[in-house]
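Review this today:
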Amino acid sequence: MSEQTTQSAFTTPVVPDKVPTGEYPLIDNDPHFTRVMRYTRPSDWAYGLGIGSISPALMLYWERVSPSFVGKGGFAPVMRLSCAIGATGMFLSAYARSSHRFYGARENRREVDMDMREMVDKVKKGQSLYGSSDMSEYLQGVAHRNSRYSAVFAHVIPWPNFVNHPYHGVDTAKYFRQAELELEQERQGKEGNSS
């Protein structure tokens, strides 16, 4: 009796992933930080630069419209802080836009193709699709549950995924099917060339 109650006290509730119903396909609902940065488009950086330049531009504008008269060296620290805030805003906005493409919330044809190519190459090499981790399966699940779809709220709490885990909300069988097709085509190509 006590064994049964002890066992039930330590069960982990399974929170199912939200299945997006958007116009574009889901690539990954919890992409690793480095993967998001590799897939970031130049237009995301340009958008982020626009967002990030607002803070220093406003400080310069306000200083011109209503001078503070703080004297020599008084305005420079304020501008440095303003530029640091702008750079943070630039990075977070570019990161969020790139992550939204993984979620299928934005047009993501380029990312879908890059994802398929990257994962099929990993399958062909016999590598783990999403990398390996020294963390326990339980902690990988905790990390996933804490950071999935986190870029939606990145402007309030930046919480990117730094953990390699197998929970990404997509059916990975498509990568294995594509790898099989490509390997078969390569084999047939070699047989055709040898005969």
About this structure: The first helix runs from residue 2 to 9. Residues 28-188 form one domain. The chain has eight helices and no strands. Residues 116 and 175 are 7 Å apart (CA to CA).
